[in-house]
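hey can u check if this looks right to u? its 230 residues, i copy pasted from the old doc so theres a chance i mangled smth
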Amino acid sequence: MVISQRPKKVVLIVGTDTEVGKTWIAHKLLDIWRELGISVSARKPAQSFCKGSWPTDADVLAAASGELPEDVCPKSYWYPLEMAPPMAAEALGLEPPTLAGLVSSASWPSDVNVGLVESAGGVRSPQAVDGDAVDLARMLQPQGIVLVSHAGLGCINSVRLSHDAIAGISVEGGEEIPIFTVLNRFETGNDLHRRNLEWLRERYAIQVRTGLLDDIVALGHELVADVTSG
């Protein structure tokens, strides 16, 4: 499915799980791109949250991209219940979203060069009644996928399983979508964090970055290198 007025580049942010800091990483990337003078837009296809909590992910992304929260995520896809979006919709007595509906609602301003899309939960978390974040990636056809994980105990398992789930997704024409893995909340003085990073890089040949600011800045530049050079 082709997104209307598609930006020059679309980047999808996914997580190994919920609460790993996808929105924080997304916020930082949007900040970096705007500092580079690149026009950006953010989209959260659907969001669920604790009723009365603020800010929502859409609020945070909107603040970073300079948009309105309802532009980031249409109000019809806001679910004030802490469940995966289609489950929350059903529990609230609402019609659950479909992937086609989510993707078609993610229209973009005509002057945007980089569009960022943040999924809900982990890569296998339901995004719609008919698909998870892997299915969303296949339909969305981003030029890059950022996989965010925590850095602590269990992250090797989470990263490998999630990486395997999204590896091999290709854009039209057959080119494989690159995956950029980030260990968020990484502490340089934490021996477990350092060893997890080393094992993922050296034993499993996964290209991993940390969530430290310098690494995120470098990632931000790498993701839009073809945009800034063009």
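The domain at 9-229 is CATH 3.40.50.300 (Rossmann fold).
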